[in-house]
Design brief:
The chain is an alpha/beta fold. It contains 27 helices and twelve strands. Helix content is 43%, strand content 7%. InterPro entries: E3A/B/C-like (IPR044611), HECT_dom (IPR000569), Hect_E3_ubiquitin_ligase (IPR035983). E3 ubiquitin-protein ligase which accepts ubiquitin from an E2 ubiquitin-conjugating enzyme in the form of a thioester and then directly transfers the ubiquitin to targeted substrates.
Length: 780
Amino acid sequence: MSEAGRVPSPATPLVVAAAAPEERKGKEPEREKLPPIVSAGAGATAGLDRGAKGQISTFSSFISAISPKKEAAENRSSPAHLVFPNIKNVRDQPPICLDVRQKQRVSMDASSSEMKAPVLPEPILPIQPKTMKDFQEDVEKVKSSGDWKAVHDFYLTTFDSFPELNAAFKKDATASFNTIEDSGINAKFVNAVYDTLLNTPQDIQKTVLKGIINSLLREWKGPRTKDDLRAYFILLQNPQFNNTSTYVIYAHLLRQIATLVEADHHFLVHWFKKQYSRLSQKRFKQLVERLLQFISLRLFPAKPEEFPPITKCSWWIPSAAKVLALLNTANNLVHLPLIPYTDFYNSTLDHIDLMEEYHTWQNFGNSHRFSFCQYPFVISIAAKKIIIQRDSEQQMINIARQSLVDKVSRRQRPDMNMLFLNMKVRRTHLVSDSLDELTRKRADLKKKLKVTFVGEAGLDMGGLTKEWFLLLIRQIFHPDYGMFTYHKDSHCHWFSSFKCDNYSEFRLVGILMGLAVYNSITLDIRFPPCCYKKLLSPPIIPSDQNIPVGICSVTVDDLCQIMPELAHGLSELLSHEGNVEEDFYSTFQVFQEEFGIIKSYNLKPGGDKISVTNQNRKEYVQLYTDFLLNKSIYKQFAAFYYGFHSVCASNALMLLRPEEVEILVCGSPDLDMHALQRSTQYDGYAKTDLTIKYFWDVVLGFPLDLQKKLLHFTTGSDRVPVGGMADLNFKISKNETSTNWLPVAHTCFNQLCLPPYKSKKDLKQKLIIGISNSEGFGLE
């Protein structure tokens, strides 16, 4: 959706003009031309280019406008807006967020430390004005004297220019600092200065903002030096940018960061990763929240007159999104992410035209038209589900329409059944009949699913479809069936490595998962997280059938999610301090049991003759892990992969992380029983009835494991749909039977039939017995 159409144009802003432009001295090396972040209608420079160093007219009015305390009443309706004159040589914008439609999913380690920034001129830094101790002493003196002059002078000097910023916060005044792993910035000093800033008088806060404006103006027109990146790194953390009155300055800072070259972005990513992993995850989260709030308030401003017209600042949101992409990459580079990936979600986007965003992305990709789909990490799983559902519905309509047109063109009488994927199966031959039906009706997989059990009367209004999924999944994953191995330690299933002549049943499981996503059905499947990572490798089926699918980089951590004991043993091998060759006596050969026969496999050519030593043990662990999770089950998983993607062949799928695919298939593990109570429907009961009050008193007092058992008993799964508890359509019906009976569940309809128990104790006892001695299927 075009940003120009999101927000009504506000009143004419206060203009702060710079002096006449100059050509940049010294041209930078030629770089690959990349699409700008601005929208198509905004032009290549979107009204913000490098200008000349010069005085800023009407500066006192500008400072009055950006002050947190709008002292002058006449300035309240005149927000500040910096306008820079246009010049040539605007920096091209690097691909911070790669096009997620690419054939192969790119590793999050793309921002590797091996990438080196171009050689830049070494800046001559001023002398460090104060140490952190000196600054803190000055702040303490203020408490007794009330004199802010020393503190004011520090802020005035420090924020006057980029070199002064670097000099003030440099950890070692004599050391050179320009490594990708360490910014050389004293982060604790930066935090102390910013924490103090918020409690200083308004004139000091205005001084800082004035200094930032002057610094940005100088940087925009001058050649870049090594200290620029560190200055951006410091300024981005300024908490003053939480205030909407500073958003004009904040926007220009974000744009200058967004337009840096890609090598510079790699520096910033690694600096953020290093600083916040050592210091404060809370501050990293605040940085992310500040950017998300900036986007939200630009989309839906509480006071539109506070901001410049949207037509003049269409680059605000794309710039913020690009900087968020840097932080998201830094977060993913850490072994244990600094904050959950869900903290990057912007729930405000749930209220915009998501399909227009999706179609813009489909049609223009990462070109001149901005779309939030270029940055899918900011789109919530609920919003992505809406996109996937509507895209699926549109595909269903198109397929059904085509079938109808074909029928009419052949002068045949249309049949309404042709609009659906009709499954007719026998309960006694559930797997074979389902496989036959899906094979015969491969062209109909993207139609609406309807299920009929042979010999049984009934119209499928959703209940039969869910029952078909439940029964089929239950049978396929049974240990006796041999397709999957259940690992008790990790409570999950994994693909059996047994070789067979036909892998069509693995394809069936993939189709089932695809149909579940396509038809918004939550399945009770327990695959480890790496399964979904493999399922998106690559996220779309390659046009070249010789390209392997379902192969991804795996580690011992991935293996630990399936076989924790084996993973622990390999970790001990890696950390063993003795002689590995003599103590373990292993070779690059592994053994597996298949139908009672022990078979050997070489992890590399001649592996049975290569001993595992201290020098090659990392290679051994990596090859062994890859063998278990990739090579030994390749044919099984490839069939599963093609089955899933035969249904979910949609660009919308490429917006998802592996964790989000798991949530779409299996639901979320986070339970909110209070939300379930609010959304529950009643049949034969009222929510004020004593039995219902007893029920909720008992359920809300259950520990988490019993709450999960209750959910599994009544719905067939202990997880929650993406839309939350309300999407369960949970119903409690009155069962007019003896109170000696246990509760009964109809899992196909998420319905609990509850006798009118007379006491809370009796209800609790019967309910616990019922939910603890069932596998999720009541009396159907």
